[in-house]
TrEMBL record:
A Pfam family of this chain: Alpha_L_fucos
SUPFAM superfamilies: (Trans)glycosidases (SSF51445)
Assembly information from the UniProt record: Homotetramer.
Name of the protein in its database record: alpha-L-fucosidase
Keywords: Glycoprotein, Glycosidase, Hydrolase, Signal
């Protein structure tokens, strides 16, 4: 990505087998988050260094399922970039309801 680039990430993949597994377990498991979503998100930030990340919706699962606070801690403390975030599962903003 070039400077000034933005990233819109859709976390939820309604019919992904790992998401369905977690849903079946009432989101007490985090296989989808740990094995797919977070590794992809860390890779995108590290590789492409976006200026903005816009993420929409927590939908069926709470922010604790998505590990939003853990990602935000990494982003602000250890990531190679500083980005503007909006609506990372309602932790940052309530403006997109």
């Amino acid at each position: 990505m070039r400077s000034g680039s933005h990233l819109f990430l859709v976390f939820l993949q309604w019919f992904h087998p790992l998401y369905l597994y977690d849903k079946k377990n009432h989101f007490k498991t985090q296989k989808f988050v740990v094995e797919k979503t977070l590794p992809e998100l860390y890779d995108l930030v590290t590789r492409y260094k976006p200026d903005i990340i816009w993420s929409d919706g927590d939908w069926e699962a709470p922010d604790t399922y998505w590990n939003s606070t853990g990602f935000l801690a990494w982003l602000y403390n250890d990531s190679p970039v500083k980005v503007l975030l909006n609506n990372i599962h309602k932790i940052i903003s309530e403006d997109y309801n």
